[in-house]
TrEMBL record:
This is Flagellar basal body rod protein. Belongs to the flagella basal body rod proteins family. Keywords: Bacterial flagellum, Cell projection, Cilium, Flagellum. InterPro entries: Flag_bb_rod_N, Flagellar_basal_body_rod_CS, Flagellar_FlgE/F/G, Flg_bb/hook_C_dom, FlgE/F/G-like, LlgE_F_G-like_D1. The keyword Cell inner membrane does not apply. GO terms for cellular component: bacterial-type flagellum basal body. The keyword Protein biosynthesis does not apply. NCBIfam families: FlgEFG_subfam (TIGR03506). It comes from Defluviitoga tunisiensis. One of its GO terms (biological process) is bacterial-type flagellum-dependent swarming motility. It is found in: Bacterial flagellum basal body. Residues 4-34 form the Flagellar basal body rod protein N-terminal domain. Pfam families: Flg_bb_rod, Flg_bbr_C, LlgE_F_G_D1. Its main location: other.
Length: 240
């Protein structure tokens, strides 16, 4: 039975891999998207000891693991490719950092710099949420002369786009992240106006990983069938 449990755990891991791969492929064309990868850990680690004579403590000779399970799903923040759009409201971050966004009374962070101007003249993203300056205020745009320098400063003003790095990062949804803000230096990033950062998904690699995950699933499924057949034979033999 132990073999069946281990193989079943492996099949569940393959399902988790396929879920992440499918989500990555679905977002291959999403601006600023960061791919997910899975972290697995051993489950039910047991210490094996050898006992000799009257030794009550024994000697550790190794560990045994019952199975491997999914521990967490982590985003990969490798830089995505930058593409020029020549749209003055498109922005990409080359290097570290995130744009700071306000939705209602909450702050979120994104690498998606495909912005626009709402009917009040404020810089917003595709969701209609405010893009914030370094003082956490919405940015009122002068459409006649809107030029942003490499450090995020808006030319002719004392306003700068709020670019921060994050610790303990978690994906929130809508291409947003949450986390604890970390200050950046100018050497850490460059704001490029008229550019967008594509997703960091390599479609070919994800397809290869999908094939591998499917093969693992099939092999483990066959292992379960074989183990089940052997168990049935053992039960049949023991009944005589």
């Amino acid at each position: 039975m132990r073999g069946i449990y281990a193989a079943t755990a492996g099949m569940l891991n393959s399902f988790a891999e396929l879920d992440s791969i499918a989500n990555n492929l679905a977002n291959a064309d999403t601006i600023g998207y960061k791919k997910d990868y899975n972290i697995f850990k051993s489950y039910y680690e047991k210490e094996i000891r050898a006992y000799q004579n009257e030794d009550t403590q024994g000697k550790t000779i190794g560990n045994i693991y019952s199975s491997v399970i999914l521990d967490e799903v982590i985003p990969n923040f490798e830089q995505g490719p930058l593409s020029e759009t020549n749209n003055s409201l498109d922005f990409a971050i080359n290097g570290q950092g995130f744009f700071k966004i306000q939705r209602n009374d909450n702050f979120y962070y994104t690498r998606d710099g495909e912005f626009t101007i709402n009917n009040q003249g404020f810089l917003v993203n595709k969701n209609g949420d405010f893009v914030l300056d370094a003082q956490n205020n919405p940015i009122l745009v002068d459409t006649d002369d809107f030029f942003v320098l490499n450090d995020g400063s808006i030319s002719g003003t004392n306003i700068r786009l709020n670019i921060v790095n994050l610790d303990n990062i978690t994906k929130y949804g809508n291409n947003y992240f949450t986390g604890e803000e970390i200050a950046l230096t100018q050497e850490d990033y460059e704001v490029k106006q008229g550019y967008l950062e594509g997703s960091n998904i390599n479609v070919l690699n994800e397809m290869i990983k999908m094939i591998e995950a499917n093969r693992k699933f099939d092999i483990l499924q066959q292992a379960i069938s074989s183990t089940d057949s052997l168990n049935a034979k053992l039960i049949e033999i023991s009944s005589f």
